[in-house]
Amino acid sequence: MTGTSRLKALAAAVAMGALAFATIPAAAQELPGKGKTVRYAQSDSLGANYVVAQIMMKAMKQLGYDVKLSTVNTTLFFQAAAQGDLDIATDVNFPQREPGFRAVEKQAEIVGAGLIVGGGINGYLIDKKTATAHNITTLEQMKDPKIAALFGRDGKADLINCDPGWSCGDVVDFQIDKFGLKDTVKSIRGKYEALMVEAVARVKRGEPAFFYAWSPSWMNNALVPGQDVVWLPTPADALPPSVPNKGSALVSGVKGCAGGADPCRMAMSSWNWSAVANKGFVAANPAVKAFVEQMKFPLEDWSNWEASINKNGGSTALVTKMADEWVGLHKGMFDGWIEAARSTK
């Protein structure tokens, strides 16, 4: 072989090697999470947020991180994140949890703009049959003892409220007082899921029902707004001092608002599940931050997950299956989120 031939052969070999390196998947070349562990938290309130947690963990593992999952209530998570004992959670409800977050905002930060596309809504619902029969189109009509008596057994309307300790229940109790409903409406605070099972059964039997709920939730599948139930507009914006007002409670495009009102004045402005993380963790892990900033799910997905968990239980196997199915159906988008996160510096 001549000298020129040797040079040509060497050049070809170098080019082949470069091509081979270029075809190595990006994940093999560089994993931003290599050698790192994410201490990830999910709240102790089971729901569609658990499916999102599984999707989030899949992403972090693809980015090279080891993941340690803890289940803690949000108040304890705030304390742990501020102290650096936990890194991130993606199921913090705002604005309800804002007071607790403000106590640790020097050490923690909100990441992204919320995981529900368009956000969610909170408000009061009654069965459509009773609403139509008695022309009930606003929450204020519950001041009328005759109307209120339709929804209770002792002359007062039984309003199914949130669990004791849930901030949404504090909103409801505050509004009952603020709107002058204490003489005609009785707040029922117990285990919400069990109370709502009975409410669903009442509506299915054609009986009156009055309850507080939110969307997306399993309720939207069991009792469809506009079909089985209607949202009752509130007379004014009114929140207790512990829940900051993040905008008007007037929400446009609410399906099933009583009387066809649009916008429909809900119990409060739109809410969302958001991510909160320790500031030091965010600064050291831009890939996780970039992934969370892209991660969003439509209302329909959240409601379907909630409905499945309510119907079939919230086993780890079921939650993982739903997460796997979602990733499989949206692989192109999920992979795009991963790639964008991987390339973030």
UniProtKB/TrEMBL annotation:
Question: Which Pfam families does this chain map to?
Answer: OpuAC
The record's GO CC annotations read: ATP-binding cassette (ABC) transporter complex
Q: Which residues form the ABC-type glycine betaine transport system substrate-binding domain?
A: 38-327
Indicate yes or no for the key word Signal: yes
UniProt KW Protease keyword? no
Signal sequence coordinates: 1-28
Q: Which UniProt keywords apply?
A: Signal
Q: Which GO terms describe its molecular function?
A: transmembrane transporter activity
Q: What is this protein called?
A: Glycine betaine/proline transport system substrate-binding protein
Query: Lineage from the top down?
Result: Bacteria, Pseudomonadati, Pseudomonadota, Alphaproteobacteria, Hyphomicrobiales
